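Checklist before submission:
- one chain only
- standard amino acids only
- sequence pasted in full

Submission:
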Amino acid sequence: MTADPSKPIEQWQAFDVSDPNTKKIEFARGELEPEMPYYVKVAAIGPEGEGVSSESIPFDTVSGGDNLS
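Returned file contents:
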């Protein structure tokens, strides 16, 4: 994940998800900047190493307030 998609992939923040049924990663308030665009890529990791990454997937954070989930 990154706020700057022009950075090399090695500089993006990575998250390991061990359960293949996991469909989301949640962040606590304050872990991301409000009203900011972020970008994610997804790649599988298996016995042979890391697979091909997806294209960048953009999302925007919102400003504070009530929990939106």
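Reviewer check: The domain at 1-16+33-63 is CATH 2.60.40 (Immunoglobulin-like).
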